[in-house]
Amino acid sequence: MSAVTLKNCGLVPLAALEILDFCAFAAALRQEVDAQGRIAALFAAPAGEQFDLFALIARDWQGQLALLRSRVGARYPSLTPELPQVHLFEREIAEQYGLVPEGHPWFKPLRFHPSWTGRDAWGRDPRRHPLVGEMDYYRVAGEEVHEVAVGPVHAGIIEPGHFRFQCHGEQVLHLEISLGYQHRAIEAQLPSAHPLARVQRLEAAAGDTSIGHATAYALVCEALGATLAPPRAQTIRALALELERLANHVGDIGGLATDVGFLPTASFCGRIRGDYLNLGAEICGSRFGRGLVRPGGVAFDVEAPRAEKMLERLDSMARDTQGALEIFFDSPSVLARLEGTGRVRVEDAEALGLVGVAARACGLAVDARLHHPQGAYVDTFDHVVIEESGDVFARARVRRREITDSLAWVRRALRDLPGGELRRRVAPPAAESLAVALVEGWRGELVHLALTDARGHLSRYKIVDPSFRNWSGLALALRGEQISDFPLCNKSFNLSYCGFDL
Amino acid sequence: MLKILRERLRQGHRTAPYPQQDPVLPERFRGRPRFDLERCPPGCRACLDGCPYGALQVRDGRPCIDLGLCLFCGECAASCSAAALMFTRDHRLAARRREDLLSGADEPRLAQALDARMKKLFGRSLKLRQVSAGGCNACEADLNVLGTLVFDLGRFGIQFVASPRHADGILVTGPVTENMKGALLDTYAAVPEPKLVIASGACAIGGGPFRGSPEAHDGIGDLLPVDLYIPGCPPHPWTALDGLLRLLGRL
Ligand code: SF4
Ligand code: SF4
Predict the structure, then answer these.
(1) B103-161: per-residue pLDDT in tens?
(2) Could you give the CA distance from residue A384 to residue A387 in angstroms, rounded to a whole number?
(3) Which residues lie below 8 Å from residue A417, measured CB to CB, with a gap of 6+?
(4) What is the whole-number distance in angstroms between the Cα of residue B76 and the centre of ligand 1?
C-alpha cells in the first residue's frame, strides 16, 4: 500500500511519502473512500516546476490518518466527479497555483485573489486583482422563476458574503453562495510571518474559534519539534476549547430562538453566552481566548483557587443554561418551526464531506475528539452525539446535548487538573517533513498541516476550517425550502465567513 | 407558559448599573499599559524587539505603546524581566486623534466630545451602520453584545441600523480587505452628510494581526477620515461603550 499511516499530531518525513503517478493516486483515494475513509484535506505545494498534491485521509473507525502524495503539472483530471467531497479543494488549488482540474463540474474561483504563481486557472489577466464575486452563477430559467441576490453587505452586524437564490415563487430551487470578501491571505503569509504573528493570525482565522485554531497550530509546531505540551497545559487547552464550544452552542440556540421569535430563550442565551466568554476570560483575560494557547503549552495557569471559583460560577451558569434550553425545546410552537426544516440527507452529507455539528445532525459519527483524540481527550471522551433527522431541529438538538456533555467535561477537568509545568520549549522543527493536527472545534473539525524545507523552515501551511466544508451543506439544506426559511436554516449552521475566506 | 414565567423570574434583571458604577473586568483583563520608567535598565530593548507589529516604540527617548497597533496580547509585558511594563485593567482606551493612541508614561488622552454643532445633531440619538471589512468576526461579536441586556446600548440613544441612508455614520471593523474596499467606500458614500467614521479594533485602525497582508489595507486610515478610534483585539464591549459615550460627551 502506498499510503503512509499516522496518528493525529503525527509527523512524516517527506522522503517516506512515495510520489505516485496521478492514476495510482486517484485509485488509492477512491479505494480509501470506498473503505469509509474521509478526505480531510487535499492541497498542493510547489515542487520545482511541478506541484505536489497531498491528500489527508481520516480513517475514523481505525483512529488513523493516512497520507497520499502525487505530482502534477499545469492540469490534471478532476477527481470531483467521482469524489464530490474534494470539489472545493480542487477549486482552491486552482485559485492558489493556477492548476486546472480538467472536467470539474463547477469550476469557479472561491476567494477571488490573484494566484500565487502568476498563472490564472480561468485565463483572467494575472496582473489584475480579480473582481470579487465576478463569475458565472447557476441560473434557472422559466416562467415565474426569479432570482434573489443578497449581500455582500447584510443588514445587521455580520460578515459579508453573497447569496443568490433561484426561486419559483417562494420555493428555492437553488442557492449559490459566493464568498471571499474577508480574504486576508492568511495561508500565503504564514510561513514568512513572525512566530508570534503566526499564532495571532490563526487566533484570528475565525475569531470565534481562537482556541481551536491556536491549538491546532500549537500541535503542529509540537509535532514538528517532537515536543509534547505538559499534561496540565493540555488540560487547560481542552478546558478552554470546551468553554468555546459552550459559548457558541448557547449563542446559536439563542440565535435560533430569535429567528423563530421565542424571546425568553433568545435573551437568556444572549446573556449566558457572555457568561461563558467571561469565564474563559478568567483564565486568560480575553473573552475570545486570545493569548492563551502557545506552542509548547499555555501562557496562563488555572490555579486551585481560580478553578474553585470557576466551578462555583459554572454551577449557576449551568442552571441558567438548562432553564433557557428547556423552555425552548418544550415549546410546541418552536418545535413546529424547527422540525423538518432545512433537511440534509445523510448520503449528501457524506458525499460532500460535511463535518462537525452539521454532519452529526445527519447521523454521521464524525468527531475528532473520539476518533482522533489528542491531549486531554485521550481516554476521557467516549461518545459522539448524533441525531438522525438532518434538519434544523437535529442541528439544534446536537448542540443541546453537546452543551450537557461539555459542561460535565469542563467540571471534571476543573476538579481534576493535572499538576506540573505550563509550557515547554519546543525543539527546532524537523527538516523536510509534514506534520498534521486535527482538533474538533465547536463547528467541527479543524485540520492544520505544515511542510518544512531542508533547513526546517515552514514552506507551506494548510488550514481547513469546518466552514470550508459546511457552506455547501447550507446550500443543499435550502433546496425546495421556502426562501423565508433561509435565516433559520442559516442560523442552524452558523458558519464562518472569515474561516472560509482565510 | 407558567414555566416560561418562572424561568423569567428566576433569571431576573441583569442590566449593569453603568456608568454610575465602574464595570467589573476579569482579573487578567489587559487594558491600558503602564510604564514604570525608573525600572527600565539602561539600554534595554527586550520589549521593543518582541512585538511583531511595531506597536512598542520609542518616542522622545521614552518607550510607549501605539494602542492602535497593539493586540493586547501581553507578550511584551511577560518578557519584561524588570517589571517596568504592565497592562492595567483600565478599559478606557478610545481616542479621537491617531496620535492620542500613543500610550506612554504620561496621562492618557481619552476621546474628547464632538464639537457643539455635531453634538447637538448626534448627542441624543446616534444611528450607526456597521461595516465588516475583513477581520475575524470577534469585533462584530462583541459589538453585537452591546445590544444585549447587560449593556443595553439603546438606553444611551445609540443604535445600529440596517441602511446607510438612515445612519449618521459608519463603524468599521477589519483591516479592509481588497475584496471589501469597494463595498466599504460605497457604504460610506451612501451615508448623508455630516457623518462620522469610527474605526473599531486593531484591524480597522492599523491592520491588526493582518498588518502587511497583500490582500488588506492596514485599516481605514488612508481611505476615510476617522473621528474615533477604539483599540483592542477585539475591543471589550466596555471599551467600545466608553468611546462612544465620550464621543457624544456623555461621560
Ligand atoms: S501586547 Fe501589544 S505591544 Fe505588546 S507584544 Fe502584544 S501586540 Fe505588541
Ligand atoms: S481587531 Fe482583532 S478581534 Fe477585531 S477583527 Fe481584527 S483580529 Fe479580529
Answers:
(1) 988 889 999 999 998 888 888 899 999 999 999 999 999 999 998 878 889 999 999 99
(2) 10
(3) A232, A235, A236, A302, A307
(4) 6
pLDDT at B10: 80
B202 touches ligand 2 (CB under 6 Å): yes
Span B116-247 CATH architecture: 3-Layer(aba) Sandwich (3.40)
Q: Is B123 in the pocket of ligand 1 (CB under 6 A)?
A: no
Domain B33-89 CATH assignment equals 3.40.1000.10: no
Q: Do the Cβ atoms of A207 and B234 come within 8 Å?
A: yes
Helix (H, G, I), strand (E, B) or coil at A100: strand
Model confidence pLDDT, tens digit, residues A63-97: 999 999 999 999 999 999 999 999 999 999 999 99
Give, using CA atoms, the residue closest to atom 4 of ligand 1. B76
Phi, psi of B174 (to 5 degrees): 95, 160
Q: What percent of chain A has pLDDT over 90?
A: 94
ipTM value, please give it: 0.95
* CATH architecture entry for A186-472: Orthogonal Bundle (1.10)
- Which member of A156, A197, A290 has the closest CB to residue B162? A156
CA distance A441 to A457: 27
Q: What are phi and psi of A470, to 5 degrees?
A: -90, -15
Cβ–Cβ < 8 Å for A282, B27: yes
- H-only helix segments in A136-262: 186-189, 195-203, 210-224, 231-259
For residue A74, give the nearest of A55, A54, A46 by alpha carbon.
A46
Entry pTM: 0.97
Tell me the pLDDT tens digit for each residue of B34-60: 999 899 888 888 888 889 999 999 988
**In this predicted structure, what is the pLDDT of residue A1?**
56
What residues pair up with A41 in beta bridges, in sequence order? A56
Query: Chain B residues with CB inside 8 Å of A274's CB?
Result: 145, 148, 150
Sketch the domain layout of chain A as residue ranges: 1-110, 186-472
Boundaries of every domain in chain B: 33-89, 116-247
Residue B63 at interface with chain A, using a CB cutoff of 8 Å: no
